[in-house]
Amino acid sequence: MMESTLYFIIEVIGTLAFAVSGIRLAARKRFDWFGAYTVGVVTAIGGGTIRDLLLGAPVFWMASWMYLAVTGLAFAIVVMFKRVLTSDSRSLFMFDAVGLALFVITGIQKSLAYGFPMWVAMIMGMITGSFGGVLRDVLINEEPLFFRKDIYATACLGGGLVYWLVEAAGGSAIVQQICCATVILFLRWGALHYGWHLPEMKER
Length: 204
Description:
It contains eight helices and no strands. By secondary structure, the chain is mainly alpha-helical.
């Protein structure tokens, strides 16, 4: 019961964080209210939808209106604090990084609950965390972070690997989640502040 409650809380916070990041970027592109809300919804549910389709699971947001309501709350937050959120690039990093970390955790946990091995769970964690942002960037006509040299999908895989190692060492579910999220946030912070990145592909 406690684990399912914690999973629910993580999903709600992750949905809110990702929705804010999507709506914030849509506001910077001067989308109308409906367009901004749509971008927020896609950002919040896109990765989890792809994950559930691949796992053969019921698509999570179709079972409850809560995810659309949480996106509505995110929309209200951006409208009320638009000046602060759209002028400070650090706010985008904060919301995006928190959503990324939390959704990787939910992706891993759901995959394991459906009986898939850990290596599949790591990939599903990456998809859950990253692909909402990919769809967001496509909708607002930006090059997706997922495909840049910036550490993004790699951070998801790094967090998943740590989740696996802590599990193998006998750590509790809470410890696994904390360690996974910490690694993802640390890698994203290092990419932002120190320019950590993967080598670029070059023609020659």
